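Chapter review: from sequence to fold.
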Amino acid sequence: MRNVLTNKWFKFGIVLFIYLLWTLWVQSWWLLIGVPVLFDIYISKKVHWAFWKKKNVEKQTKAVEWIDALIFAVIAATLIRMFFFEAYTIPTSSMEKTMLVGDYLFVSKVAYGPKLPNTPLSVPFTHHTLPFTQSTKAYSEAIQWPYKRIGGLGKVKRNDIVVFNFPAGDTVVVGNENPDYYSQIRSHANYMEQVAKEKNMDLTPEEAWTFARNQIWKEKDIMARPVDKRENYIKRCVGMPGDVLEMKDAVLYVNGQKEENYATMQLNYHIKVTSPFNQLKLQEMGIALDDIQYYNNNYKLPLTPEMLEKIKAMPNVVSVTRETERGEVFPYSEAYPWTRDDFGPLPIPKKGETIDLTIENLPLYERIIGAYEENKLEVKDSVIYINGNPADKYTFKMDYYWMMGDNRHNSADSRYWGFVPEDHIVGKAYFIWLSLDKDKSFLGKIRWNRMFRFIH
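The token string follows.
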């Protein structure tokens, strides 16, 4: 048996079988070029592939052994990170109380099928920027691959907690990435329109946008990023391709049916009190210090339904009202005066679906047509042109999703930047392996009750 296990042909056969299975999974027949390499490594041994080792030496030096182990570890970790799972940290409160700031989790790439990298040439264990730098790219765009997703265990389902590349992160203001590039232009353009109105000057929204964009490009360092190098976001998928979504008074409806609120979903409330709350009591309820806003016997707090009832029952509470702040949201058009709590009905685009395209509904789909599906989109004399041809219909090339945070009033999500294309989907949040509370110290920082928990 020992002779069989150490036989070079047996080793080659096992490695070849695994390699061919991987090639079949990835569905890239270019990988078959690696078969002669494997044959030479195990059988013919004509090429010295392990160039860092001395040839025909049984006992290598300690330095060479360390280099050998390091190379193997980097390759193995890179393949695991690319095809199976990746570590992720919850940086913001947008998914509280489902996911907490300080949760460390594993994201399953095989849940929906790993997507091959758009930019395969990159520094291992980095995302888009080299460590200790602000703008130095950790990748090269010398080789760029088109979108390709290989077989997975399933597809995105409604209410899955999904990690994805930030759609509005295709262009960033270096060193000032929050708010996103488009929000910064929009804010500057709105300010210019307001000033022009006060001074009785004629300034169209298009002129204000163009001026604001040119100003930012002149004053800031602007960088474009490929899809796989955009920031990773985590949200709940509430809208599937083909769904129709609507929000009425902060209640979500999908295809006309009211969606049940999660026990962990929270909204902002304004609370009038006769005396301040005990801050420790609020923390015990699960309210982070950063979320406690207090001014003149008035609190603003994000609360789940259970927390809301506890607050109402406190003797020093005079009144509790839900926040109803109004503000612009996607698609930022006068034809769609929606808010974060009241929007829609909004159809979610589905691959292969053909829609009637008009000037009125173009704001909903212009980013899909121009940016995500890479067409040349123009409007001249109220006529829509796609790739130089007049168009009154459009057929979608990809599926799209609608993502929202469970912390509904403190989440930058699809209500602000629109649809998430299928080629931006990274994976499914799967398992919490560590959780640290930034408001605590030493061992008290560890949330023991959240460790080693599967995410549902």
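Two observations follow directly from the output. Residues 160 and 456 are 8 Å apart (CA to CA). The radius of gyration is 27 Å.
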